[in-house]
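Researcher: I've been going back and forth with a colleague about how ABC transporter ATP-binding protein might be arranged in three dimensions. Neither of us has a model we trust, so I'd like an independent prediction. The organism is Glycomyces buryatensis, in case that matters for your notes. Sequence below.
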Amino acid sequence: MSPKHTYGSAALLRPLIRLLGVLRGHRAMFWQSTASLALSLLTAAAAAGLSAYAASLVVQDPSDTGLAQLLLLGLACAVIAHGAFTWIESWLSHVMAYRVIDGLRLGLHDGIERLTPGGLGKRRGGEVAGAAMADAETLEWFYAHTVGASLCAAVSPLVVVGALIALTGPIGLIAFAGVAALIAVPWFLGPLQARQGKAVRDGLGDLKAITLEGAEGLREMLSLGLAERQKRRVLEATERVQRRKRALALRAGAESALADLIVAATFIAFLVALTAAVSGGRLDPALFPAAMVLLTAAFIPASAIFPMFQRLGEMSAAATRVLDVIDAPAQVADTGTDSAGARQRGDGAVRFEHVDFAYEAGTPVLDGLDFTVPAGEHVAVVGASGAGKTTLAHLLMRFWDPVSGRVLLDGTDLRERPIAAVRERIALIPQHPYVFRGTVRSNLDLAVPGADEAAMWKALESAQLADTVREWPAGLDEAVGENGATLSGGQRQRLAIAQAFLREADVLVMDEAAAHLDGIGEQALARAVAEVMDGRTTLVIAHRVSTIRHADRVLFLDGGRLADTGTHTELLERNPAYRALLAQAELPADEPAEG
Ligand SMILES: Nc1ncnc2c1ncn2[C@@H]1O[C@H](COP(=O)(O)OP(=O)(O)OP(=O)(O)O)[C@@H](O)[C@H]1O
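Model: Here is an independent structure prediction for ABC transporter ATP-binding protein. You can compare it with whatever you and your colleague have in mind.
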């Protein structure tokens, strides 16, 4: 058996203890809240014990109520104190809960930012964020309401059992054994619970992915006649989840039944021992009801943490997932300190110096890539699908770093500069731009916070989107829906282009930015690019000749290498692979260049 499968409940606690760090900043509040909870439990136990003792004294000798009156006074104090401590504990634990969840969410946000886009692997950022945020909610309950309760569950029964032993002698040890057995049940079943919890969670994850896929790809599925198959997949995944949930419920039910059995057995054994002691004259009968009430009080906190121990595996798994994100190393190290000083117009020379890159060791994607784009040059990056064009753009944005070689901006290695300083200089218009929920204005404002309206219209004009926005009833304040749902593909891209124009970066990188534009729009855009990017370095990853031929120069990539470079006309004349690529893409390679 692998060590992975031999963990016990103590191992389940490890990630939870490591994450306890989130409480570090709230240590004082944590101890105040825990102390209030303990005092609230103890005052409740004292009130119950005092009232039972007072009642039995009055029943035994109604004529002598002196001590009973004193006990009733103590009872009143205990009840008032109990109310006060309960209120204080509830207030402190809720304030702490919100602070804990804030801390966890910030840590997760930072972790996801460090991981994006490389470290997420095949998972989507939203999926990871969603799962991690749900885990943060789960853990908030644990840290804010459970850690303190667990400490109290361990400490207050000890105090109550101590009082019982003082009152009843060794009989009190029965209570101790009962409470210990109650806590031991879920503790020892922790690993089984963890496995079952994981199975349910994995099943739910599959079900969610299948359902989402069905919703997102519904049109494609209907057109391919796959609706029935999809229904079957959803049904099978649902049944799998139900089966696993049944097994989990069966175990939890058995656990609860065993717990009830332990409580009942403890009460019976205690009752029998107490009766024997009273009838044998070894115990004052007046203490009998108080002892029974104290036994109940010893079980209350233990019963309160029983459900928490039943969820130990789930909590541990949530803590592990949160730690995975919080501890994630940065995809690229942001250690550069050269902030490049004041920007000069005309800056923006890009150089790839013998760059090798691989996403996975042993599968090179860029192989000795070496080229320079002088400041202000307009270059088209051309190559077959998978040649490494997008990867080149991502290296320039420092989403990744080269395995060997260097990427330079104005002669400085990108790694020597803070990442934010690099990204401020380069605007990337990706293949599928993300439009944030909000309005046209709010999306432009994200590019340059506080940009004025005139600048926004100028950018929209340049991106050939101004006329469309003017026609919308709310103009700049028109809602764009979730990920620009109310925009066409071309409009989404033009909005991203407008953002890039607004930023006035020195280098513009467009990844097939013209893919969604019709022929006329594309030509107009090409002219706008030429005008607005005058004097700025531009790399356009393009397949279309109408885009390519506007470039000063073409970088022709083949299998991650720079196969050739020159003007479009030169490459057409001398490079058969280039001609073949354009022909293969059904592009009019012999399309006459615009004058
Ligand atoms: N995140 C990733 N993890 C692993 N491999 C990747 C990743 N992204 C891209 N690749 C691989 O790297 C190679 C180059 O991909 P890239 O996207 O740079 O090509 P491209 O020239 O832009 O292609 P296209 O024109 O189809 O967009 C491909 O083989 C691709 O499968």
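Researcher: What would you highlight for our discussion?
Model: I'd start with this: The chain has 20 helices and ten strands. After that, consider the following. Strands lie at 350-360, 363-373, 378-383, 404-409, 412-413, 426-429, 507-511, 537-541, 553-558, 561-566.
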